[in-house]
């Protein structure tokens, strides 16, 4: 269950996820594998952090 104090953290994580996903798509379009892999890791880690907060 999400606690009231976690809402702000979740909001920031979602914004981070959205931003990383946009950069991921840009890197894919430019065929920039280094940035793509970096953004892919960021997306995955952010998703895990979100799930961790939700599952608490």
C-alpha-based Rg, rounded: 13 Å
Euclidean distance between termini CA atoms: 6 Å
Number of domains: 1
Calculate the mean pLDDT score and round it: 93
Description of the structure:
By secondary structure, the protein is mainly α. It contains 2 helices and no strands. It has helices at residues 6-29, 33-55. It is elongated, with a radius of gyration of 13 Å.
What structural keywords apply?
0% strand
Short note summarizing the structure:
It is built from 2 helices and no strands. The protein has 56 residues and is mainly α.
Describe how the helices and strands are arranged.
Elements: H1 6-29, H2 33-55
Helix pairs in contact: 1-2
């Amino acid at each position: 269950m999400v606690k009231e104090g976690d809402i702000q953290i979740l909001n920031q994580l979602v914004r981070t996820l959205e931003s990383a996903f946009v950069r991921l798509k840009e890197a894919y379009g430019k065929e920039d594998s280094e940035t793509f892999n970096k953004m892919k890791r960021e997306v995955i880690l952010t998703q895990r952090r979100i799930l961790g907060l939700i599952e608490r």
